[in-house]
Amino acid sequence: xxxxxxTKINKKSEPIIFIHGTGMDHTVWTLPVRHYLRKKRDVxxxxxxxxxxxxxxxxxxxxxxxxxxxxxxxxxxxxxxxIVGHSMGSLIALEMASSHPSRVDAISMIGxxxxxxVNEALLESAKSNPQIAINILTFMGYxxxxxxxxxxxxxxxxTESTKRLMQKSNKGIIYKDxxxxxxFDNGLEKARNVTAKxxxxxxxxxxxTPRVKAQDLIxxxxxxxxxEVRGSGHSMMMEEPNIVLDYxxxxx
Length: 252
Prior knowledge:
The protein is α/β, with parallel strands linked by helices. It has a single domain, classed as Rossmann fold, CATH 3.40.50. Helices cover 43% and strands 14% of the residues. The protein has helices at residues 30-38, 62-75, 88-99, 120-128, 130-140, 144-147, 158-167, 173-183, 187-193, 215-220, 236-239, 241-251, and strands at 3-4, 16-19, 43-46, 81-86, 104-110, 197-203, 225-229. Helix 10 links the parallel strand 6 (197-203) and strand 7. Helix 3 (88-99) crosses helix 9 (187-193), helix 4 (120-128) packs across helix 5 (130-140) and helix 4 packs antiparallel against helix 8. The protein is globular and about 45 Å long. The two termini are 25 Å apart.
């Protein structure tokens, strides 16, 4: 597995694990990773199998991805940790916190919903013509205003940067990721099994995982901290990176 930073992991540090979403990689977490490194907090920002610099065979279910990360953590003798996950990564965080509740201290689920439904036409496009799926995901992944520009990072074109990142993904990755999200089940039961501190960060203009679709999750967690990013779409780390970081700092 590729992870950033690539230095030796302190197995007693209880790191924060950052897990990206569909077709993406560890680079979407650049701001919070650097922030916590400056604060002397150990972090592990991973590329899931088949994503970014990770050349392992892609996996097609949330449970398989969860087990893959646990195998990595066990290999490095990391017992306790926290998780920040975006979109598909949020479902992996939920699976991990539910399957081994004593090992997970806290989870932050960014841009999440259950069920995380995927339109059949989008799935078919991801399988037969990935560029169409990438165009749809990029368009729907941003709020109206962010499609026009206005990046908080000077010189950055948010929508095109996301499109280019997805285009770099290996063959079949977009389809496998979307399929894994659509087939994730028993999410509410799993939410009830979580003993970790829980935070949800939700965009009020999120068209892919609308705020209303997270309500059942919220109702089944124990006292979750619910934060809203006003005006943001699904791609909150790009649209409002500083607000997302401020919310993460409430948890960590």
